């Protein structure tokens, strides 16, 4: 009898230890999980949604949008979806990494395209040496020409510090965060931006090329892929947004190559908006809208007065298109049982 009591006591003690261990683990791991979902009455933990990095120029930054941007609108749609399904605290980070006026090359360099110094950099106490940077392929780099989003602090070789562009000839200086008495970084040292180093576990949305910066379609694809391939374990989790300007005839060759390269990960924004832009926006097409749409152009009602940038309605419409495609590709995964609130917008 005593043996049975001792055995029961030990079993209860072991059970209590296991329960405490499970509780402790759940408490420790809570920051890494979303709220609980339910499957067959058993509670399961859903992984956190990845961040979304929106790479681009003024069309991403939100010029002429009266404070509206497509990244901001995209986050609102996701938040509305999660709130409608009971998960208001699980909204992911949506980063606006747009800089007005930047070329595709400059954006790609911020997002992961390899850059290298063109001369050795001698680092001495109180001394800053001037040097140039080129992208892989030998093209001169002019990051920091129009903004610092995602750039500083950079890492050159093994040294972290601040990169400054000091003139229009693309000369740079580098100020290490921690200066040793003397250190020399060799020629061809790799230059890595903050975003390229720290924003890698995310879904990139790449909307680049309106300001040039590429020699041909293959070069633009190379730049886009540099951002995609910089993501950790996420080569199939990305969106490439096509140029929205021009007519169907003017964009045929570019759009065909993009579609062949990226498949459903490519959004032919010009084509979608020229066919269904006013419908997606929930507005009535004007006579001018219909004329432009017949030519394969984005309707005027979605554009600012310059007919290049979007207005607030246009940015919200772009966000809807991107959100729907991301959801269709299962790039955005909601808790079990969640119902979509935005329809898919394909060509």
Descriptive account of the structure:
The chain has a six-stranded antiparallel beta sheet. Strands 4-3-13-14-15 form a five-stranded parallel beta sheet, sandwiched between helices. A two-stranded antiparallel sheet has the order 1-2. The longest helix has 28 residues, at about 1-30. The protein is of the alpha/beta class and about 350 residues long. It has ten helices and 15 strands. It folds into three domains: about 1-45, no CATH class; about 50-110 and about 200-330, SGNH hydrolase (Rossmann fold), CATH 3.40.50; about 115-190. The chain is flat. β1 (about 35-40) and β2 (about 40-45) form a beta hairpin. The chain is about 35% helix and about 20% strand. The protein starts with a helix and ends in a 19-residue tail after the last helix. α3 (about 70-85) packs across α10, α4 (about 105-110) packs parallel to α6 and α8 (about 270-280) crosses α10 (about 310-330).
